[in-house]
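Q: Can someone sanity-check these two? First one:
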Amino acid sequence: MHHKRCPNCGFLNPSFKFCGECGTSLESPARPRQIPAVDTAVMEDALPHRAEHRQLTVLFCDIVDSTAFSEKLDPEELRNLLEVYRTCIMEVVLAQDGHIARYFGDGILVYFGYPIAHEDAAHRAVRAALGSVAALETLNPYLQASFGVEIRVRLSIDTGLVVVWHISGDASPEAIDIVGKTPNIAARMQALATPNSIVIGDTTHQLVEGFFETAALGTFPIRGISQPVNVYQVSGEIPAQSRLDIASESGLTPLIGRAREVESLKHRWAQVLASKGQALLIEGEAGIGKSRCLQVIQEHVENHPEAVTMECRCSPYYQNSPLYPILSLFQEHVVQFSSTDTAQTRLDKLENLLRDYRIPTVRDDAASPSNFDGEAQEHAPETLPLLAELLEIPLEVQQQTGTGVGARPYSRPVEQDTYPSGWGRRQRRQQTLEVLVQVLLKMAEQKPILFVVEDLHWIDPSSIEFLTLLITRIENARIFAVLSCRTGTQRFRESSQAEESGQSLQDETSDSDLESSVLDTEMLEQLLRPEWTNALTLAALTPPQVEEMIQHVAGDTALPSEALTRIVEMTEGVPLFVEELTQMMLEGDTLTSDVFGVTDPRSQTMEVPVTLQDLLTVRLDELGPAKEIVQLGATLGREWTAELLHEVASGLYPRNRLFADFATLKSELNTLVSAYILNQDEMADTQLRYTFRHPLLRETAYQSLLRSRRQRYHQRIAEVLQGDGGFQPELVAYHYTEAGLPEKAIDYWHRAGQRSLERSANVEGIRHITQGLAALEQLSADTNLRKLASTAQQELELQTILGSALIATKGYAAPEVEGAYTRARELLETLESQESILGKDADTSLDRVKDLRFPILFGLWLSHLVRGRFLSAHELGEQCFVIAKQAEDAAFEVEAHRALGATLYYLSEFKEALAHLEAGIELYQPQQHPVPTFLHFVADPGTTLLAYSAPLLWCLGYPLQAEERLVEAAKIGEDRNHPFSDAVLLHFKAVLYQHKNEVEMVETTATQMLRICQEHGFSLWEAAATVMKGWALTELNRSEAGIAMIRKGIAAWEKTRAELLLPLFLTLLAQAYQRAGQYTLALQTLDSALSVVTRTGERAYDAELTRRKGELCFVLGKEPEAVGEREFGVTNPSYNTFEKAESYFQEALAIARRQGAKSWELRAALSLSELWCTQDRYREAYNLLRPIYVWFSEGFETKDLQHAKHLLEKLQVALK
């Protein structure tokens, strides 16, 4: 048969003239249907309820072997069967506030957590599944009798993030739809269940574990899902379990930061034991630790042999059930019913209780008036029928008489004439509450009672009335009534029933008072009156307490400092949040520091633990329309003003009064502050600043937005901030990036990076620049040459300042530094090669690009210098000098002199080096080198030139001039306020003091340098400071600590790939070993230093290094037993070590003279003279030392010149 495909809709038609799907003619080609472009943001606005991300628990129920029913039943019977089945499941689901989303024949899809949010949505889903199985088992006898079949089902549940939205505004199940893998997993997982069983996924299991009996079935592949799924089977519910009960089984985290609160609870219990009744409300937000405090006082009370603890919890499931928590308490703790008790047994227990505590069981005029007061004393009811009715016991009272036992039956419900004439339900309830209170008061006469009611925020009105009555009577009773509730309990929403009927709990004309679900706020406030009930508000933990808690949760796992900081920031001191977020990080792959290196004004977002998603979503859904304010505020960032929010929102929703009217918006913000969603602080300009009370709540609000809406919000925010002059370029850049507009973000990332680097906020600057480079990569490929050139120019500028920023944080020699400058050089050469093609164009002008040639070469010079590549460094310095001269740029020429002077200094060309440094100092003008230029040159050139020249002048024999250079450099530093330049200056200051052997000054300077480097993250200079401080410690007779510091510093220095200064550092380590008597290690270290010199050509410290080897030989000559002959390879260690020492000293003298380094020459001469003195060669020593000493014209108070003076005087005496 010939088939024709419809050109309009694609339907395949068997020889039709018209499409059987859409009606289009198939005889001639139809014009393709034009599908208009869809603006997803506009489409969302048109929906009755906007789509959003949220965590949802999905239940899927399917009949086993339903196909067989179609053979056994005719269609009408099958339809009726399905209707009965659906009704049965629907009743169970609705009882748990589930939403039946769709019927698939015999399959039923159910959502928990939307449209009604619950913090225990997964629990409700599992209960609904268990209830469905039980309900069908109860229903099956009827189905067997009516249809000749029984229904068995398979149920599966999964929890995960989905996108949910209302398709239309009607109330049909199909009006709500979701997308995501969660419904697919739930539907396909049911095939793994056996008949009448329930299977759940991994996330659902994580949420309900401990509350239900579960067993792991294994890991199974699911069609359409890339990763296999862990599947568990649920067999039943574990009764009366709380989160704390479950946590206790695996070990609780120690109670931290609650010592004062616990002491207060114990003190109040002591008061109770002295017959001074207490009522206390423990309040605080969800997860703050209310239950833990209650657990502590319960454990304390258990130590009292006679005390009784009575505990009950209010429940969201029973907010409409009068006296639910109180009845549960009485049944379990007071009357002590068991599940196996018959009605008669329960009745007997109740009557015995009333008798034991002398509560009158019938109306008795002789009853003690103390039991009841007012009208109740005059008309004391039969209390047994009252409590029997309350506890739902069919009443058959066995009445004691004087001649025996007679039976007087009562059947429930109790008839009106059982009670005094005219009594309605309200009077009966009041008298019932009175009896319950009397029972507790009588019990307290025998045993002190800890009376605990948890979760008051879910209490029913009748229970409030009971608690109010009890608390007003316990002043002289041994009862400690402890209530707990979430902060803001007095602001409960009234139920829709109250809004519609306008009835209150006190309406005596109503016949349904006991069943009322209205939570009267006046009643609650009456209960919590300060004269009756004291309040203990639990505050958030302090950051140190949070860190202590994190360590307990983490156990032996070491958390990175970044992770620790993020958890502290995100959890705001709420213990539950701390535990869950820490546990999530431990179980996930989020412990690398890279996770925390993202620039994000929302404080570096973090995934919200699944265990907290539902709790936080409930908080958001309770806000109603104000939820949109919270979502927009979450997009704005960690803090914002009402004015900024209004400007952003009014542009997005000009017709929405909530946003468009500033007064209305501020009113809603005040409401959010009162609801503990936002914090409010007044800024210096009297504007109000708003921050989220909990970052995790902010994150939940932000993640609930669809990407398209987020991008709209971000774009609008960026435009508003941009219009404010870009005061915070990083914020503008971030919002443009999140808006999917990288081309607009790049320039602002550049500005943000520059601004951070100018403030020496190098880590932040690197993040900003890296974000700019990432934004460049997002730009679509464009073959247009000018566009490519423009992009290359932007990358060139970013790479250039990235290189200088990386120098500060990772060190000059880091591969990333060389990589950034090398890439910049490649881009520059490419752009220059295209200059003739591009011509003159504003967007691709090469004038600014050419100006970057010098900074790029200078950056490469720095990298090569510190990596010990002195020849290539010198070549790059020469290139810098040529460019500076060609450009006739004085600022560039100063930096070029700095490059050549520094390179020649380490090559030991001291006089030529000094000439370049002096020339640079002469040219230096501070106004030509503003702080922004340091972005390319890392440090202030004036400071650096003077700092370099200080140890160089000392080497050349001018110690006083060296000191003066440091003073000049420090003055520049005071004006500049540039920490990196300060660190460079302190390094050379420490080096100068070390050369002069001024130990205390080295220690002081190194300590100051360490503080600056650690504060700003200058890793390379921190390593240098560590070496210098270690050397000072060894000279101060703390050899062990000093050597450890030097080794640590050298290791950190080498980690940055730096080889510059290693000869000096290794020489200092050898000196420390020698001082500690570790001669072999000292010798090996000096050999290592010499190998570095050979490899790199760094010879600035050659003379001192050679002299130190001579000093070691000299010491060994005086202590021949210190090192065996094998180490030195000689047969006569003493003789040969003196000989070697002299040889090294002579070599050091020669090196120093060749370099023109008079101070190194003096020191080598001193060492050789000391050696000759031991050999009575006084004349040679005098003739060597005196000419050198006489050469000096300054610095005679320095240690070396003082040493020379004293030695010359001794030699003169010896010669006489």
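And here is the second, same format, sequence then tokens:
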Amino acid sequence: MATLDIQRKAIDAMTIMNVALTNIRLYPPTSAIIRNTIDRVYQILGEIFEAEGSVVFAESGPNFIVCGGIFSENDQKKFPQAMSFLELMVRFGVNSVAFQKRISKQELKTFLKIMSRGRREIEAAGGLQRVIENEKLPNIIIDHKVYVVVDKDQQIIASIDLSDEDVVRYVTGDLPLSEEDVEKLREMAKDPRWVAQVFQAGMAHIMRQRGEKSYDRLSEILLRMIRTLDEISEDINRDRISGELAHAIVDMDEETLTLILTEDTEGMFSEELFDQVIAKLDDRKFERLAGKFRRIGGSMPRANGVAAESASQTYRFMMRSEKGKRLAERIQRRMDQEKALKEQQVSRLKSALNSILKGDVAPLRDDETLSLMSGYLFQLFEVGKGKSAEIIIDRLTDRLFGPDHDIRERAAGVLAEVSDLLIAEHRLDPLVRALPRRIEWVTTESVPLSACSRMFGQLQHLARELIREYRFTESHPVLETFNRIYYGKIARSKEISRMAGDALRDIATGDVMDLLLEEFQINEINKRKQAIHTLSQLGEISMERLLELLQKSHDMSERVRVLRAVSEIGQPVPQTLIEKIGAGGPWYYMRNLILVLGKIGTEDHLPILIPLLRHEDFRVQRETLNSIYNIGGKYRGEILISALPDADERIRLNIVDMLGALKYENAVVPLLQIVESKSFFSSRDSDKLREKACIALGRIGSPKAVPPLRGIAEQKTILGIISHSDQVKAAAEKALRRIRSTAAHAGKPAGAVKIPVNRKLTLPDAGGKDAPEALPAGAEAPGAVTVPLFTLPEKPKVRQDGDTLEETTVSMLLASVEQYARNKQFDKAEAARQELVRMDDMALSEILRAEEIIEREKNETDDIEQDHLGIWPELYDMLTPEEANALYYATEEAVYESDELIFRQGEQSSRLCFIHKGQLKLFFTHGERESLLKVIGRSDVVGEDTFFSISVCTVSLSTLSHVELSYLDKSVLEQWKTDFPALESKLHDYCLGIERVRDIIRNKGLERRTRKRVDIRGAVSIRLLSSTGAATGKNFRGSFMDISEGGLSFMIKANSRKNVSLLLGRKLDMTFDFPRTCAGKLDLDARFTGNALRVRQIGTVIGVSHRQGDDYSVHIKFDRSLGEAITEQTRT
């Protein structure tokens, strides 16, 4: 490639790098814009590397140098982006930046991220060079000097108006001179010593560019300098110049001599000068150079930049000299001696290795054998005999666990040397194979500190290289070992623990962390789970970056993944997390930090959480409450009671639920105070709080609560005024039954509790294939219990002569409990047991028997099937044993055949599906077009978008094969609120970590909203319509959010999520004022007589979203387009 082409490509690279820096500052790290610009830079650098060994950008005096050429003023004006990159480099105090040929894309990305940071930040970190060194970017070289600077008292020229630098730049071709100046140089060149000094200065200048320019490029500069010096020198002085040059050359270093002696030049570098240089070289330098040229000439077409042909020719010339002939004789004698010695050593070594394979340790005591062993084993790998080497390495590893301390150290030394050689040549597989035994060794107490230090160094290097190759899983044993030692899970000395921490920090270099976080965010090679585990094993080292990502991320799924990764880090809680909670931040960030502390914290962290119960944001308070509940241990009850009086009404509801779940005896008095604080004018929220307080008292089961609860349950109206709501009275009644059941189970009296009998008994459908048996004819009497049909157990008849109706019903209920439990339908068995308690709370033996049956059958199921745990281990890891059982037993099984629809776009679905077997397709319909979004299979969970929100399905799901799945029905969420208050949020957290439907649609380039939406302000008058289209109930109002031609959304306030959910799928009659400005934005052709038009539209509720507090957004799809409605109304 021509030099000009190289410079042009280098300018293009600078231009795109400057664009990349801007993109990095503006866009998130996972942005495709950033990836594309970095890919483009890397591609251009690769094209340059086809001809050059490096790409160098440098400042030299008033000029900028790009790949050896001056970046002219015209080019600077023509390529301002490239000039901006160079100016940024100078602002960082850098004179040159060189990109070497072996640079990786990850190194380039890390470099650009560094350059995108502020100058003060870089300076505070020690400057750009220090930062790059710390990030371990070996193929990016900062500040290799381009030109040599000579002191004034060493001036080569003293009598003309040219600096030494100007002369050097002229002879090397970087600076043109006027004819007048060249004549002055010709005058100076009459002095052979001056020529020799210029040559020395020029060579120093050339060799200082070794890390920046390819060998071919340096050769070109050398040839240019030689020709220039030849042109300005006179022929009559050639002999004297040759002598002076020879003296100068022989004192140069071997790399410079290599460059000079391999050039095929004419003029002053004649054969005579070559002979003079060879004659003046001392024997040792001569021998080393000859050996070097021999190796290069016989190894490969090009080594270290030197052409093999040139090296061979130089070697032949050297060996023809008298000095060369004497050297050849010495070399031959030495080779004969070495060959004989090597044969003896190899013979002895093979014998020693055979002895070691047989279990003899004596060869390990021989120092000479030991010194040869590592090199020999490495050669076995080199020549394809790795299996043989591995067998020997296994035997040496066995010796690490032997009783002899000296043998252990010697075996460890050999293994360490072999490992160093393998790592240096990037042969990682043998080391990965040997990892289990090496790790077993370093975790034992008997390992010497020095041997442990060396092994740690090798293991950390191996882990870092494995991560760089995306072999995350193979690096985990190393990371886990360091993690366990550092955090005290493996008891080792403080010094070794410190070394393990240092090893983790050395592994987590900038490029490694960038690589892990990139895979964590975009899952480019489908190794996100492995990347998460890798980050978690790095412990607190990765915490800072993860929390930074948590704060900046705008993607909920990504935030959930971050929380999961941080939670995996576990204890001890990193100080970084404590500091960030103390520093504060936006509510959503604080909530997430508190959530993390609630997952990995302990009782010791309660003082951090308690003040946050008074945080200004309700959502932060709620998360704080959950975290206290999770980690508060024996202190939870008192903390909750102390927070109860001053808490927000919504928080008090949660506190009461938690006190009930804890069955905290000391909570009885404050809960009774809530229950008995009824006034005639209380709010509906207060009634809800009293209802929950009653339920909590029932769960606690204290007899102290019986009299007040009985008073509420049996309370009559006073002067026509109802003191307690029906819901509170029903909750009190339920609590009394539960207290009675608890007391019966414990064998203690709980006071006489009168339970009304004249209620209708409802049982869940028992299912099963046995035919149901009805009650005998005439058994039902007015006010008696009505029992629906249900499946009976084996006995065909339950009622015996003389039994009362209640006794018969109790027997049937007990039989039903047994039938359900035997069929593993524990939710229905529990419902039947509770109905039994409600029916006759004095049937203590039957109640106890029912509980025993359920517990026995649960134990016989071996809890949760291992197959279920194996499919969703991450989900069950988040749950307590009680929550896990509740989730598992709440699921129902279903089987589908190929081409069956599970749920349809635009319709309601209340199921969250867990796929066990088979394949399904998730697809999106747009008009007549059907777009495949994703193929769903085993271990996938689908339906979360409608299960946790109030919305119709935005996509469809159908089977591609025979499918087996289990599902949760949405109704279970209400049941969990009392018994398992944290289970819904945990399940939701897990589902948020799954790729969401909206993300899949966006990534596919599809758009659910086909019509333009615009913001709109104002009120909407709304009325519910019946299925026949008739208006029902009263009008209510909503506040506009936005509108399109196909629908609108508005905000409403509601106290009950359950009531709001009833809107889904309902028809609404809406009247609103539509502004003229909105019509223009939606491109609607409408005639307005004023600034707004009164519009009436009918539409269907397709979604309801909870916003904050009592605020909900309602999303409507019009039955007919807005344009049609406006056209018709303006016409009439």
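A (reply): Looked at the second one. Residues 322-357 form the longest helix (36 residues). Confidence is low (pLDDT under 50) at residues 145-160, 748-803.
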